[in-house]
Amino acid sequence: MSLILTPLEKAVASLELALQQPKNEFIRDAVIQRFEYTYELCWKMLRRKLIEDQGEAHVVMLSRRELFRMAAEYGFIADTQRWITYHRARNETSHLYDEKKAEEVFRVATEFLPDAQALLSILEQRNVD
């Protein structure tokens, strides 16, 4: 069974488009929102692919940190710690009440895009199997 990657493809493209715009408060907020749902799709697709490849029993009970370690072990992501940073930033998005936090999440979102694109590329390659 192969993953349907269209939603992730669209989310990554949407984040990329937002990051190409001249930055202002509205673009920053759009980037943060697009980061949120792109991150969510990334880890969920990653989890589905690991379940497909490794079996549900090996993946279902993993914490996010353990899931990212497994993903790195199997070559889906390059750096576990960066993905943990993305997870923390995603958690911060529900608490964005000040400029400093918003700016930090925006910065993380800019770092996240290449990793999201790389994950999408790997999922596309391995989805053919």
The average pLDDT score comes to 94
CATH superfamily: Nucleotidyltransferases  domain 2
Q: What proportion strand?
A: under 5%
Structural class: mainly alpha
Global outline: globular
Task: Specify the number of helices.
Answer: 6
Question: Could you characterize what this model shows?
Answer:
The protein has 129 residues and is an all-alpha fold. The chain has a single domain (6-127), classed as Four Helix Bundle (Hemerythrin (Met), subunit A), CATH 1.20.120. The protein has 6 helices and no strands. The chain has helices at 6-19, 25-54, 56-59, 64-73, 80-92, 99-127. Helix 1 (6-19) packs antiparallel against helix 2, helix 1 crosses helix 6 (99-127) and helix 2 packs across helix 4 (64-73). The longest helix has 30 residues, at 25-54. The chain is globular, with a radius of gyration of 15 Å. The model has no long low-confidence stretch (mean pLDDT 94).
Name the descriptors.
mainly alpha, Four Helix Bundle (Hemerythrin (Met), subunit A)
Record the SSE blueprint.
Layout: H1 6-19, H2 25-54, H3 56-59, H4 64-73, H5 80-92, H6 99-127
Offer a quick outline of the entry:
By secondary structure, this protein is mainly α. 78% of the residues lie in helices and 0% in strands.
